[in-house]
Structure formats: C-alpha cells, structure tokens
Amino acid sequence: MREKQISLTVKVYDSPDELRADEKELIEEARQAMDKSYSPYSNFRVGSAALLANGATLSAANQENASYPVCVCAEVALLSACSSVYPGVAISKIAITTRGGSQPSDSPKAPCGQCRQTLLEFENRGGKNIEIILTGDKGAIYKLASVKDLLPLHFSGADL
Ligand code: THU
C-alpha cells in the first residue's frame, strides 16, 4: 500500500479590490445575474458569469421547477449559454455567487457535484484551464486555477 497525496491550492482574497479589474467586473455580473434567479422553492439564489477567450461575457442564474429534479443550476445554465452563443470558444474564468434567503451571504459556496462535472467537460473541451471565482455578497473570495481543483479525482472523456 502506498498513499498518494492530492493537493489543491485555493487563493483567498479578503476584498474584491485585491482582484484584477476584469475579475471584479465578472463578480459584479454574477451578482446581477443572481437577481434573475427563479428560486421560489429553495429560496437559494445562484448567479454565475463567464469570461470567454474572445473577451465576451455571459451570465446566468438558477431556474427552479415545481418538479424539483428539473431545476437547472446557474452553472449549467451558463455553460449551455456559452456553447450555444459562442460555440467552440474556450472559457477563461467563471465567477459564481450565492445568496440563501434574504440575508446577505458572507462566505463562498462551492458548486454541486453535477456542476463540477459539467464544468470539467467545458474545461476539457476548451483545452485550457477555467479559473473559478467563488464569492458571497461579502467576505472572503476564493479563486481556483482549474476546475480540476474542484474535482481532483475526476472522470472524463479521456477515461472512455
Ligand atoms: N444550485 C445551483 O444553481 N448551483 C449549484 O452548484 C448548487 C445548487 C441551485 C439549484 C437550486 O435551484 C438551488 O441552488 C438549491 O439547491
């Protein structure tokens, strides 16, 4: 038996002012997208925004359904929009923000497993790492260099 260490680095920022201007703008877009969340069942709002390699940005929010499994996560909605509007264009960065209930959220929340798997597919499709920025309304901001940091032991098309 031997142990294999898998490590990940999360960059933690205490203020958006520590980020690059384009990253601050991306967070702002994700926050604005969160206002378009349709989440009457969970009351949990998620907003996401992507910066693509061609300089364009797109954003999306979670869209719920009375039949709960039909709910669409913000990240999945965003990725579908990216490949529908800009097919073949890689994604450089994605900002994700959340707010549960009516109180401002003060910590970053990580995407669910399905979103991580979908993000991984897009990272591999694009052939370049997608930086992931996670934030609440305030508090610390996390930045990961790759989707693989969210899904260290992953399954992908390369395994088929
Ligand atoms: N949700 C997302 O949009 N992204 C995630 O990564 C986790 C969960 C949404 C789905 C649902 O509308 C609400 O958050 C509560 O699960």
Layout of helices and strands:
Layout: E1 11-13, H1 21-34, E2 44-52, E3 57-61, H2 74-85, E4 91-100, H3 113-126, E5 131-135, E6 141-144
Parallel strand pairs: 4-5
Antiparallel strand pairs: 1-6, 2-3, 2-4, 5-6
The structure holds tetrahydrodeoxyuridine (THU).
The third-level CATH topology is Cytidine Deaminase, domain 2
Strand pairing plus helix content: what structural class?
alpha+beta
Bound small-molecule species: tetrahydrodeoxyuridine
Integer average pLDDT: 97
Rg from C-alpha positions?
Answer: 16 Å
Identify low-pLDDT runs.
Answer: none
Spatial gap, N to C terminus: 27 Å
Q: How helical, in percent, are the residues?
A: 25-40%
User: How many DSSP E strands?
Assistant: 6
The total count of helices amounts to 3
Order of helices and strands: EHEEHEHEE
Sequence of strands across the biggest β-sheet = 1-6-5-4-2-3
Beta-strand content bin: 15-25%
CATH architecture title:
3-Layer(aba) Sandwich
The level 1 CATH classification is Alpha Beta
Tell me what the structure shows.
The protein is α+β, with helices and mostly antiparallel strands and 160 residues long. The chain has a single domain, classed as Cytidine Deaminase, domain 2 (3-Layer(aba) Sandwich). It is built from 3 helices and 6 strands; from the N terminus they run E-H-E-E-H-E-H-E-E. Strands 1-6-5-4-2-3 form a 6-stranded mixed β-sheet. The longest helix has 14 residues, at 21-34. Residues 39, 42, 44, 46, 62, 64, 71, 73-75, 111-112, 115 line the site of tetrahydrodeoxyuridine (THU). Residues 39, 42, 44, 46, 62, 64, 71, 73-75, 111-112, 115 line the site of tetrahydrodeoxyuridine.
